[in-house]
Amino acid sequence: MIVTYGLTKRYGRTMAVDDLSFTVTPGVVTGFLGPNGSGKSTTMRMIMGLDMPDAGTATVNGLAFDELRWPLREVGALLDAKAFHPGRTARDHLRWLAQTNDIPVARIDEVLDIVGLTSVAGKRAGKFSLGMGQRLGIASALLGDPGVLLFDEPVNGLDPEGIRWVRHLLRDLAAEGRTVLVSSHLISEMALTAERLVVIGRGTLIAETSVEEFTARHQAETIRVVTPTPQLMVSALSRAGVRPSVAEDGTIVVEGVPSARVGELAAQAALTLHELTPQRASLEDAFMELTSEAVEYRSHDGAERAPVAIH
Amino acid sequence: MTIALTGPSTPTATAGPARAGFRQAVAAEWTKLFTLRSTKWILAITAVGTLLVTFLSAQSTTHKSHMWYQGFDPTNQSLAGLSIGALSLGTLGVLIISGEYSTGTIRSSLAALGRRDSLFMAKLAVLSAVTLVLGEVLSFGAFFLGQAILSGGGAPTASLGQPGVLRAVVLTGAFLSLFSLLGFGLGLMIRHTAGALATFAGVTLLAPILLKTIGGHPVRFTPAGIFANSVAAVVPQSDQLSATIGFMLMVLYCTGVLVAGSVLLAKRDA
Hints:
heterodimer, A: alpha/beta, 2 domains, 11 helices, elongated, B: mainly alpha, 10 helices
């Protein structure tokens, strides 16, 4: 469980993170979304005790990072590619990490196997490709078998097969009951991986919700209608209480009505349809709109939700 | 998919007093130091360079006239080669911390150890131990090599039983360790490899040259001055600091940078 409360960080005059409060619960993958520069990495670094907040707290399993007795066994993180020395072999890197937390040597081979680096374990990490470096970082995060995991842009540099592998890995880890926080600016990938979302923009919280609800709310479905008699179609729709918009070329766009209904209305008015296509606005567009406005948004039905109890 | 670990992997509330602390950090730092090729190179160059310079400089003072040997200090002469260690082990001290920042390893290190002072103390312990052992081995080695060459070349020699000789050899070896700690402290403060090395070189190599022009012999207060003239000499000249005072002064310098460095490590963003 990760809880941040009023987390604030300033760099000179810029507010990188501004009074950020959210909770990440175990058992689900939580996506941490925001455009570049929105404060995701800074927030994760503060959770991991790497940066000091100017105000507020961030706790892992109820404790500040420096209070953890066995940090690697409680929380593992992949914060950026290549947090290791290029002159050291992958195995040696994991070896010293394991020693810091009395992690048994056998575990090193286990995590190398999980990420698929067993064959290159003796290679110096500087020779690794970006994807291999990511995998080593993931191996380091998993080394202590922690209950809390943070991943900052884990699919950077991975090929499609690697991206799928990470997606399944994250879902498996969450299914085992772990707390998994993944940050990304690729919302389409996030929609496939995560179940909950924390969206930030310019350092402030914009949304804390489930992926299902986010998609339902922001992926407005529209119907595209092409007919040789657009004006008649518009009249038929207006009579049924629908307000369509018409483009210059006669294409009609209808919102808020199932395509079946549009078809029936056309049939009742004996009109010919050339095209009747449901369309979804892209998630990216919805996300861009949401984060550019930086609107405060919480809860399932627009009503203010009580703050999450912190225990 | 992942096999749960046995051992204190359960939440901290149920764990005993054990934690990822000094002992674990020292083991990790030892591994970190000796799994890098650069460490082995630095230690090798230090050893080989020291003995080589000892050999050559001792050779060059053999077969001289009796007049030439007036005021000759055989101990000081045979320890001259250890100056190489001052620079190379100082570099090791810088790299042991600046290398972490330049490669990003510092993030892994701090994520593994909940407390930053564990990292500082562990690096300090490992660096001190390694450089102290190497320093003493080389100091005694250079001394014996130097005396052997001097005696074979008709020059005056010294023996460990003579007053001040053993002290000079022991303190000179330990002084190399202090150079590495100076580098470590500077590395902690500056974090940048190039900047820290340049500062270290400036303090050790440049300062004596620049200060030579100022009256009052300020060179005797510089690490290099203390090293060559106070600590490595059996009887320091009258205008130099005594061996004990000089050594304590260097310890003071090192303590200063180490304290500043550890405070910065604790307070700054990684």
